[in-house]
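Hey, I'm writing a tutorial for new members on how sequence and structure tokens pair up, and I'd like a real worked example in the thread rather than a made-up one. If someone can provide the structure for the chain below, I'll link this post from the tutorial.
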Amino acid sequence: MEAPVPPPPPERTTPARPASSPSERITEHALELGFDLVGIAALEPPTDAARFERWLDGGRHGSMAYLEKGREATVHPDRAWPEGKSLLMLGMGHSRPSIDLPGGGRIARYAAGRDYHNVIQKRLRKLRKRLQADGLAAPGPGFVDATPLLERSHAASAGIGFASKAANLLHPRFGPWFFLAELILDVELAPTGDQGPAGSCGTCTACIDACPTQAIVAPGEVDARLCISYATIEHKGLVDHELREKTGGWAFGCDVCSEVCPWGSKAPNLAERFGVRRELEEESANHPPGEALARMLEADLLAPEVSAERHRETYAGSPLRRAGAQGLARNAAIALGGTPGERGLDALKIAVAAAATPMVRAAAAWGLIRGHGKDAGVQDAVGKALASEEDEGARRDMEETLDRG
């Protein structure tokens, strides 16, 4: 008699993994597309709304009229986008070594490569398509630093980072070196502010102490009118004389407050993400002092429409395009005042007499006096330019330059 066959052992099963929540699935999609930081905030008035309005009322936005124009939408995003219920806040690191222009002068690190608006906007579009395909969101808007939305405040509420005394956002891994972007979603999701990284500035005042122009007028509050980044990018007119004297070699933007921040000292080198413009890869020592700055200044020797077109072509896909041909030439003339050299001197002498734009002629006069005021013939060159200057604003500026010596 055969022994009975024992019954098969019970089949071992792995407990089913709980289905991912919509927030978890959204986060997975965002991380897969290359975003480093992901968080969710409610689409409601930002925590810093009242502070933002006081800042505007104090005129600390300078000539950035678009901020005043967008006040209502900034303070009440729920009214501006009534179809939205949540904000998907995203961060992307961009830390890289400092950038020196060939022959001297500096630009903000982020401006060394491709325009982050273009790079990140492409990823936002891909992310939106994924969320739609996964039934997580309907079609809707996405932004990269170009809409009336108090990004840093919403990002802090989403747990992306924590506020700094320099009025930017900090993260333990990236410090201040990351961009923000957002998608407005039509689904109500739980905010993730309580899941954000711990950290604070504590008693540190490095950024306040290091700012060349004392633009950080209080912890977390920057007066744009005193800020080098504002003066060299957003401001379209003549730069105040007091500010010119403190800008150093900055031709576009300024990184001082970020460079001294302890939180950013160990940020990874992510230059590959946005690349480096070819001319910026050249060794500065291989060029005479002021070479790149002189080229920027000489662009304004052309007719304005030709100069503008060439600027658009030269800086296509670059953040440097935002300053415009005239703005970049103005900045270069001021920076050359702190970068004395024969190359810069020659460019300034030509520009003070022949630049197409009054603003640039005035800046060139300042650069000449500042950097070469004791050189033979410089005072005469500026005096001659003043005598022939027809623009009243440029004339007054040149007179102030000569008065200040």
